[in-house]
Inverse folding.
């Protein structure tokens, strides 16, 4: 059984979609929810699904072992980021080589990097008068939104779209594709 840890900072809608998708999977399970916020909604999602949680302490995450011992002890062999806003430290990337995936709410390499998340991404896309946007699922490396791209999906931008309406379109793509792409990657690993 391959065990996934989901790292999230917010409400956990992508975490919930992945939990539901893998609920009765024969070879993959979501075994741990990790957050950098003790009041994040994703922790309630985990509780409702009886999934173990881990709240990160910033100093240990960035200057210690990045909680790699705790993750290995829990049997985790794959990490997916679902709205996790901290940069992943090198210690964690080295402990889980080619085993950390992120989903980004834009078509990388455009609109990625530090500060490019949530409404900031969607507003930048609107401000630059793009005609399409979408999602990028990619492996995580030492740089923000930089690792090898695994999958992209697109949606059109209409003239009357706002950052909020665009966010809803992109979230729909995330929910539709993220669990399936994670499954494909894990089954090929």
């Amino acid at each position: 059984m391959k065990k996934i840890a989901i790292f999230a900072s917010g409400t956990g809608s992508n975490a919930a979609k992945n939990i539901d998708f893998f609920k009765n999977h024969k070879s993959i399970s979501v075994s741990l929810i990790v957050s950098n916020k003790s009041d994040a909604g994703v922790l309630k999602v985990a509780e409702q699904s009886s999934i173990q949680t881990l709240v990160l302490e910033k100093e240990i995450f960035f200057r210690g072992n990045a909680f790699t011992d705790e993750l290995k002890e829990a049997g985790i062999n794959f990490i997916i980021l679902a709205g996790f806003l901290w940069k992943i430290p090198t210690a964690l990337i080295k402990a889980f080589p080619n085993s950390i995936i992120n989903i980004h709410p834009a078509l990388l390499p455009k609109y990625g990097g530090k500060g490019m998340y949530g409404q900031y991404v969607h507003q930048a896309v609107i401000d630059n008068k793009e005609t399409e946007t979408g999602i990028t699922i990619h492996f995580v490396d030492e740089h923000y939104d930089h690792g090898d791209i695994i999958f992209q999906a697109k949606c059109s931008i209409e003239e009357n779209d706002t950052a909020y309406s665009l966010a809803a379109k992109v979230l729909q793509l995330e929910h539709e594709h993220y669990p399936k792409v994670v499954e494909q990657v894990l089954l090929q690993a």
About this structure: The beta strands are 2-7, 28-35, 52-55, 78-81, 100-104, 132-139, 149-156.
